[in-house]
Write a structure and sequence with these properties.
The protein is mainly α. The protein is built from 18 helices and eleven strands. The strands form five sheets. The chain has a three-stranded antiparallel beta sheet with strand order 5-6-9. Bound molecules: (2R)-2,3-dihydroxypropanoic acid. The site of (2R)-2,3-dihydroxypropanoic acid has 4 residues, from loops.
């Protein structure tokens, strides 16, 4: 029975069952769609969280999800943010617009690299049976991380740049506003959006943002997807605490995997990446905000407000005592400013919008990784609060793509795979 037909709040047993059904219904052979209609292809970080969800009831299928993502890996190491495989007129921009020249066709940028962390989780569930699959995936993960550390840093810098808001996974976050304003949208090839045919326009990026998103795609395509040039000279390059901290965590997990399979040389190479970890955290720290914040690499300016990814420093393994009291105070203020944590952008800031995608709504995946880091550093109270809020909002509204942090209503796509996956892996009482 569809969740909508049941009485609210939904029971945990119904949610457990429905979450498994959503993963199965969104399967498209060996990979999984985030949701039907709105996102009809394989998305990078969606797929990895989905693998974590599958690992709760079908570990073999979880490994397959990771393996199919890497079918879209480029020779230069990049694991693309979308693997298209076919053209679906219900999504824009499709493979022709990206013009990646890859087979299978892909987009031309990447997405937050959660894969190595997920692979470590899968491997540790059953090391004996996972060993061969890990060995096959390991060089691919190394190549992807190496791509970030060489193609997405600007000489000497250690924080990781995103060169398109889509690469951050947080498309319309206020973190990109200032840098996007400097992208000239004139002359963009005329196009028709498809996303607003699936979801209310008030929950999606604006047309002005889309013009610039498309302009950035056209710029990248015109360079022949020269990723170093795009980072160095392109119209948009912003150091992102989200990707930087997620990669830092993934580097540590990849090092543990290197040791597990005796890949000592790789472990040493990863050490050279991690050597810059504190320096990149320093670069992102904003004393004025009392938080880590995105930084425009063309102007040096910090973002104007606090995003939920600011609190991923613990997940990344970064603790700086002289800063953490301030970061914790900021976290408490943000948690107290909404009914359901964690709002993706500060509710007390004028740019907050409770329904518009990454400008305010709660995302279960971000809650999971932030809380995981907090728990690892002993901030149990905050971690539990975030987990319980995630549980409550899903009980109230079901498996939406994101949720209004003030009233808890679901927004964006429904029957959403990564929300179902996070329920199964972390938020459901079944995981207590
Ligand atoms: C979209 O199409 O909205 C996606 O977020 C791009 O990755």
């Amino acid at each position: 029975m569809a969740l909508q037909e049941l009485e609210k709040p939904y029971s945990d047993a119904d949610l457990d069952q429905r979450a498994i059904a959503i993963l199965r219904e969104n399967e498209w052979g060996d990979y999984t769609l985030p949701t039907r209609g709105l996102y009809p292809y394989q998305w990078n970080w969606d797929s990895m969280f989905v693998a974590l969800g599958f690992s709760e009831f079908d570990l073999n299928r979880a490994w397959t999800e990771v393996e199919t993502l890497f079918e879209g890996q480029w020779n230069n190491g990049m694991a693309a943010h979308i693997v298209f495989r076919k053209d679906d007129p219900n999504y824009f921009p499709g493979p022709m617009v990206w013009g990646s020249g890859q087979n299978p066709p892909t987009s031309g940028c990447s997405q937050p690299p959660v894969a190595a962390t997920v692979v470590r989780d899968l491997y540790e569930k059953d090391p004996e049976n996972g060993r061969d699959r890990l060995k096959a995936l390991f060089p691919k993960l190394m190549a992807w991380h190496r791509w970030f550390h060489t193609k997405r840093v600007i000489s000497g810098g250690a924080a990781i740049a995103v060169t398109h808001p889509w690469e951050s996974g947080r498309d319309n976050s206020p973190d990109w506003d200032a840098a996007l304003e400097n992208v000239d949208p004139s002359g963009v090839t005329p196009y028709t959006r498809r996303d607003t045919g699936h979801v209310d326009a008030s929950m999606r990026p604006t047309n002005e943002e889309y013009d610039r998103y498309l302009k950035l795609v056209e710029y990248g395509r015109d360079t022949g997807w020269d990723h170093a040039q795009i980072t160095r000279e392109g119209p948009f390059a912003v150091a992102d605490p989200g990707v930087t901290f997620i990669l830092m965590r993934a580097d540590r997990d990849l090092k543990a995997l290197a040791k597990a399979i005796g890949a000592e040389d790789s472990a040493h190479e990863i050490d050279t990446w991690l050597y810059h970890a504190e320096e990149s955290a320093d670069f992102l720290w904003s004393e004025a905000l009392g938080a880590y914040a995105a930084r425009d690499l063309r102007t040096g300016a910090h973002a104007v407000g606090v995003s939920s990814v600011a609190f991923l420093s613990y997940y990344a393994g970064i603790a700086v005592p002289r800063r953490d009291a301030k970061l914790q105070a900021t976290l408490r203020r943000i948690l107290d400013s909404s009914t359901y944590s964690i709002p993706s952008f500060d509710p007390e800031h004028p740019r907050f919008d409770s329904k518009r995608y990454w400008r305010g709504p709660v995302w279960a995946i971000i809650n999971y990784i932030v809380a995981r880091g907090l728990a690892e550093y002993g901030f149990e109270r905050e971690a539990t609060r975030i987990r319980m809020d995630t549980r409550s909002v899903i009980r109230e509204s079901g498996f939406y793509e994101y949720f209004d942090p003030i009233v808890g209503t679901g927004a964006g796509g429904n029957q959403f795979a990564w929300t179902a996956a996070i329920w199964l892996a972390w938020a459901s009482p079944m995981t207590d």
